[in-house]
Every structure is written in structure tokens, then in C-alpha cells.
Amino acid sequence: SGVSDAGQSSVLLLALYPGLLVLVILSAFVKYVWIALALYCALMVLFSCTARFCARPEPAGSSTVDRGGLSEAGIAAIPAFAYDAGVGDGGQVQCAVCLGTLRRGETVRRLPVCAHTFHVGCVDMWLHSHATSPRPA
């Protein structure tokens, strides 16, 4: 959409060059070169700005999946629960996003593939732009 619009604008811009050149040449014979040059410059600026406007990236948050993250539904599918320090944790599990220690009663998510546990707010923010665990395997 944005990329194809920019491509169409570029083709239009290239198609207008010969017409603008003819305009400049004809105006030279009429001795109004400055008017033709002003029109030429104004049209070039207009078409350049139009091409840049059409090629603008989509606003942030419009499609997290395009940026490599998970969709809202994908993140919500990972269950959240109140953290309860387990026997194997040693009581010192660290959230790899904020580097804070997980405390009993905090709401957390455990990623299903790697079984790493993170604060809900931390891992949700991470998963909006990444599809992998914030903690290395």
C-alpha cells in the first residue's frame, strides 16, 4: 500500500520530466524563463513531497506482527498467574526484561516453549516487538 503508492508516485514523477523539460524549452523562446523555472521547481518539490508522504512507514502499533512481534491474541493466549516461589527456583528468579526479582504474588507469564517466567507488563511489552524469549536459552 505505502510502498506501491511510492512506486506509482516515482513512475508519475519520471513521466512528468519530459513534459517539464518541454515547458522550460518553450518558455525560453517566449522569454519567460524565470516563470518556467519557478513552475518547474514548484512541481518538483510538490511531487517529491508527495512521493515521500506516500512512502511514510505505518504508524507504530499498527501491525506488531509485521515488526516481528506477536499479536494481542497471541500474547493473551499465554496464561498469566500469580507468582509463587517454587522449590526449584531457589527463591531468586529474575525477570530478564526489567532485571528485577520476581516476588510472591506478582502477576507473571511463563513462556510455554522455554518455561522462563517474567512480569506480565515486561514480557508483554517485549512480545509486542519480538517473537522470542527475552532470556537466552
From TrEMBL:
- Highest taxon, organism lineage: Eukaryota
The UniProt record lists the keyword Metal-binding: yes
Alphabetized InterPro entries for the sequence: RING-H2_zinc_finger, Znf_RING, Znf_RING/FYVE/PHD
Name listed for the protein in its UniProt record: RING-type E3 ubiquitin transferase
Q: Which residues cross the membrane?
A: 20-47
Q: What class of enzyme is it?
A: transferase
Family affiliation: Belongs to the RING-type zinc finger family. ATL subfamily.
Q: Which Pfam families match?
A: zf-RING_11
| Catalytically driven reaction(s) | S-ubiquitinyl-[E2 ubiquitin-conjugating enzyme]-L-cysteine + [acceptor protein]-L-lysine = [E2 ubiquitin-conjugating enzyme]-L-cysteine + N(6)-ubiquitinyl-[acceptor protein]-L-lysine
Coiled coil listed as a keyword: no
The alphabetical list of record keywords is:
Membrane, Metal-binding, Transmembrane, Transmembrane helix, Zinc, Zinc-finger
Residue stretches making up the RING-type domain: 94-123
What's its EC? 2.3.2.27
Any single GO molecular-function term of the entry would be: zinc ion binding
